[in-house]
Design a protein that fits this description.
The protein is mainly α and 257 residues long. The mean pLDDT is 81. 78% of the residues lie in helices and 0% in strands. Keywords: Cell membrane, Membrane, Transmembrane, Transmembrane helix, Transport. InterPro entries: TM_pro_TauE-like (IPR002781), TSUP (IPR052017).
Amino acid sequence: MNMMTPWDLNGWEFAALAFAALLVGFSKTAVSGANTVSLAIFAAVLPARASTGILLPILIAGDVLAVLTYRRHAHWPTLWRLFPAVAAGVVAGTLFLVWADDGIVRISIGVILLLMAGVTVWRRRTAAADREPDGVTTRAGRAKARSYGVLGGFTTMVANAGGPVMSMYLLSAGFRKLGFLGTSAFFFLIVNTSKLPFSAGLGLIDADSLLLDAALVLFVVPGALLGRWAVDRINQRLFERLVIAATVVGGVQLLVP
């Protein structure tokens, strides 16, 4: 598959992708799920399927910065419970990409994101406000982890849109702000890195796409620094509302033709 290089883009197109890369950095260290806007920008400027391969290394760069920033706040019991289900979702997503066209992918992911946002808002209104993350040790908690894990693996493989699904899971599990960011940072670094051979095998990553990534990844760093500065100034309630709002916006964007 022929990918686009920096020289194939006009100034406005490259500026849009650079802004999207900056937003990736911001979302990884401040408001997880906000990078659905980046996903929409990449899909608008580049061919939709190709955009997922070009965006993946940029997301991994953001994941590395997030891990370096929040590595002490990860909740590993939650991560270990999620990974088997996520692996199944990634395999399902890979098979889905073999035959699904761009329109089916966009509609499927958009519907999933909006459903997850609605379920999370409902659950947070009916559940105790201060639940601890170790609630995933219950039978219901394990079932929820598996469900969200499969959906997260599926959506992250087909459209790099697993962030909102995992955001909804971590919010529904009662994670506070720093635990949320630390756990999601390690989760996506491991998951996105594991996706590289699948994406390369599907022809979504090649030398041209990596050349464009090299030009864009520089914009991830200032975005991450801006996010780290902003997160200390966002209280927990506002943080949760921003995450849910970003998820809804991302879902709507994917459904709009």
